[in-house]
Amino acid sequence: ATILNRVLYCTQQMDNYANQLVGKISGAVGAYNAQVGLGFSERCAPTKTEMDRLHAANWPTETFENRVLAKLGLLAAPISTQILPPEPLAFFLWSCCMLSAALAQLGRDGRNLMRTEIGEIAEAFEAEQVGSSTMAHKHNPLFFENTEGQWIRNKNEYGKVEDTLISEHQRDLVGSCVMRDFPIILVNLQYQLNTLRRKTDDGTPFLRRVTVNPEACQANFERSAHVILAEPLYIALQMAGYESDAHELILRTLVPRAQANKRLLIEELELHAANDEEVHQALERIPGDIYDLFRHAERYTGNANAKALQIAEAAEAFAS
């Protein structure tokens, strides 16, 4: 859900900056010399019908430049020289890179969750796919790797965009050949999307073929289930009137004991309370439903489920 939220935000930013892209039909030095000096701006003024159409499309109508650029889906730069101000395109391409990074986060997370020692998810292995070149038992996270790798390409491509933010007197064409590489950012981004949406012969996209291993998830959870309620336990002690440093008690005393004895923190705290009256009284004041939580770490999930559904619904609304 967090990655989906990032993808959604970056997609919205891409739309926002795409709608702010500018162009110029302002002559060699940006001063409209021919249009003004030769008088064809007036001769090309829009008719009433064209004015109505341009107004309906919410496009400026006052200049020949606006009319031409409207046909290209661009706004006119407020002012230009031989070249355009670089910021609108740079912000748009940066938003593309940000979306690329969000997708790469999915690749990074997926790749790590496939690691042998974690093993919580697995990529589907296609019939014609080759695994490890040396270890036949391994299925490499090919698609997750590619998704992350494209971000590395994009972040370095964006350096070229930054190099074109300055020029000699805001007019030289040194950056012209460099800018011809800019579409690579969009190509790499599209490659990431194509990878995640890649379909098999039966039409099933890649992401739908990623499987979760519940047993591995449970095993990983249980490795630390006896100590992960340290946070609510020390807060509950303080809420119950424990005046000493509850955090230090949990951190320095109870966690080491729980880890050594493979017991729940609450069990270690109950043993400790036998010799600590202040802890004993605080435990007596903790409400029963909260006290019961300390024996069931799997219940300590807050509103994660509702929050995840909220993000999914927002994405569905945006997509529709």
Characterise this structure.
This protein is 58% helix and 2% strand. The chain contains 16 helices and 4 strands. α1 runs parallel beside α16 and α6 packs parallel to α9. The two termini are 18 Å apart.
Order of helices and strands: HEHHHHEHEHHHEHHHHHHH
Helix content: 55-70%
Secondary-structure content class: mainly alpha
First-last Cα distance:
18 Å
| β-strand number | 4
| Multimerization status | single chain
Low-confidence stretches: none
Helix segment tally: 16
Mean pLDDT: 91
Q: Rg to the nearest angstrom?
A: 30 Å
Largest sheet: spatial strand order: 1-2
**Main beta sheet, described?**
2 strands, parallel
Which geometry do the CA atoms define?
A: elongated
Strand content: under 5%
Which characteristics define this entry?
mainly alpha; 320 residues
Topology diagram in text:
Blueprint: H1 2-18, E1 22-23, H2 33-37, H3 40-43, H4 48-56, H5 64-71, E2 75-76, H6 87-113, E3 121-122, H7 142-163, H8 175-179, H9 183-196, E4 211-212, H10 214-222, H11 230-239, H12 246-261, H13 265-273, H14 277-285, H15 288-293, H16 304-319
Parallel strand pairs: 1-2
Antiparallel strand pairs: 3-4
Helix pairs in contact: 1-6, 1-16, 6-7, 6-9, 7-9, 11-12, 12-13, 13-14
